[in-house]
Design brief:
With 458 residues, the chain is α+β, with helices and mostly antiparallel strands. Helices cover 29% and strands 24% of the residues. It is built from 12 helices and 18 strands. A 7-stranded mixed beta sheet has the order 7-12-18-17-15-13-14. Strands 1-6-10-11-3-16 form a 6-stranded mixed beta sheet, covered by helices on one side. A hairpin with a 7-residue loop joins strand 17 and strand 18. Helix 1 packs across helix 3. 43% of the residues are buried.
């Protein structure tokens, strides 16, 4: 769906960081083996909604100039986001490169859509959200060198009701931890009106990539796999007729689920809110697919693929403010029949918990077996893989641009990636919000299973 069909663009601009002294060592960043698996993946697309009970004139006079100024100041520190992913000729390794004058695409738009409808938890047409998410600027070619932009932002006004901030970026440039740090910095600068005071307590991005050690030669292994694929620009977003819905597992729900897992799986040491939330949703999805008339294939293996921030698991630890990807893969595999039984949740929780334990607490280190990440993933049936996007740890509802707390956070790209999105609870940060995108009939079945299933664990 084209942008102009449902929103009115008020202004398109390019925002650059203020002129900065960039020494030769920091003009470019090589991709590490943590970045390479995401090189040809779908774009990350997310939205944050804020209440804004003001007319269009106030938006134009106050919000637009303030957002442009604060974004420029935030990019002073996250200047690589204003740069490009550079693909040299002859399939040599790409790198992230910034030069003075590079900038980020920023759109200000206006929508007549129902703001309160969009920020609800109920099933909403995914097509309603797509016009609120910006498209990255097209890739450019010069002297056989391809340059791909890294970030696009759109701020959309719903007059007298609210504002949405839409972000689009490729996963190969940064993980959610890095990107949330950037958004927080921008929000803080916009709220305070300047940067000096808040920077005293803010950890700025750490760009030294020599801290990512590669004793197993994983980078060469990964590059041999992704380097053979020609990069021809970002994948277009395929249209769907799905609905997007949010489900909440309260702190009390999570504690009850943990107690059940602890009782049924006494040897399982990793029983976290993440474990039980993913396990419960995974089991409900399998049951919903079966009741929706889809081909379950009872002996088919089902896969839940997710990643964990592994900065703290290196020796010495990689700084928490490291810019880029630093994610270790985990996967859980269970046969369909096991997921749709009464004990499907317990089986799922046990499998997920053991996968996390094996990855993060491996005595041979966090990198053990990592060289097989991409080859193992490609060997799985793509129709049987579900991913996990986002994290409650990113604290979406704590991001304040001076507009107050967000009304809602959404990861729109789950519509394409077939992933579950996770977020902290809006009213209680110990709750977990789960975002899902399904066809309407399947979502209705899932909702019934999700709500009624919780009664079993009272």
């Amino acid at each position: 769906m084209a942008l102009f069909e449902t929103v009115n663009v008020l202004e398109r601009c390019q925002v650059a960081p203020p002129p900065v002294m960039v020494d030769e060592k920091s003009e470019s960043l090589p991709l590490t083996f943590f970045d390479m698996p995401w090189l040809h993946s779908h774009l990350m697309e997310s939205l944050i909604f804020y209440a804004f009970p003001h007319p269009k004139t106030h938006f134009i006079e106050a919000i637009i100039p303030n957002f442009k100024h604060s974004l420029s100041l935030a990019l002073r520190h996250f200047y690589f986001l204003a740069g490009n992913l550079i693909f040299p000729p002859n399939f040599t390794k790409p790198e992230i490169r910034y030069k003075d004058g590079d900038s980020v695409s920023l759109i200000f738009a206006e929508s007549t859509r129902d703001f309160n409808y969009l920020i609800g938890n109920h099933p909403r047409n995914v097509a309603e959200f797509h016009p609120l998410v910006p498209q990255l600027s097209p890739v450019s070619m010069s002297s056989s060198i391809l340059a791909a932009p890294l970030l696009a932002i759109q701020v959309t006004l719903f007059p007298n009701f609210g504002i949405s901030l839409g972000f689009t970026f490729p996963h190969s440039v940064a993980d959610g931890n890095t990107f949330s740090q950037f958004v927080r910095l921008w929000a803080s600068i916009n709220k305070l009106g300047e940067e000096t005071a808040m920077l005293q307590d803010r950890i700025l991005p750490f760009y030294d990539r020599t801290v990512v050690k590669d004793p197993l030669g994983i980078e060469s292994i990964f590059w041999n796999q992704v380097g053979k694929i020609k990069f021809e620009g970002y994948r277009p977003r395929p249209p769907t007729n799905n609905v997007l819905a949010t489900f909440v597992l309260s702190q009390e729900d999570l504690q009850r689920l943990k107690r059940w897992v602890a009782a049924k799986c006494p040897t399982l040491s990793h029983v976290s809110s993440f474990t039980v939330a993913c396990a419960y949703v995974w089991a409900c999805m399998a049951k919903a697919r079966a009741k929706s008339g889809e081909d379950v294939g009872e002996n088919e293996p089902e896969h839940l693929a997710f990643v964990g921030d592994c900065r703290a698991y290196f020796d010495p630890p990689i700084p928490a403010n490291y810019f880029g990807n630093c994610l270790a893969p985990c996967s859980a595999t269970v046969k369909s029949l096991e997921l749709i039984t009464e004990d499907g949740f317990i089986v799922a929780a046990n499998t997920i918990g053991k996968a996390i334990q094996e990855r993060l607490r491996n005595k041979e280190g966090i990198l053990k077996g990592l060289e097989k990440w991409m080859s193992n993933y490609k060997s799985l049936n793509p129709k049987r893989i579900f991913g996990v996007a986002g994290s409650p740890k990113f604290s979406c509802y704590g991001i304040d641009f001076g507009l107050g707390r967000p009304c809602k956070g959404e990861i729109i790209s789950i519509d394409v990636t077939k992933s579950i999105s996770l977020n902290e609870g809006k009213n209680n940060k110990e709750d977990v919000e789960i975002g899902l995108s399904f066809p309407k009939t399947k979502m209705d079945v899932f909702t019934s299973i999700f709500v009624n299933g919780l009664k079993i664990y009272d």
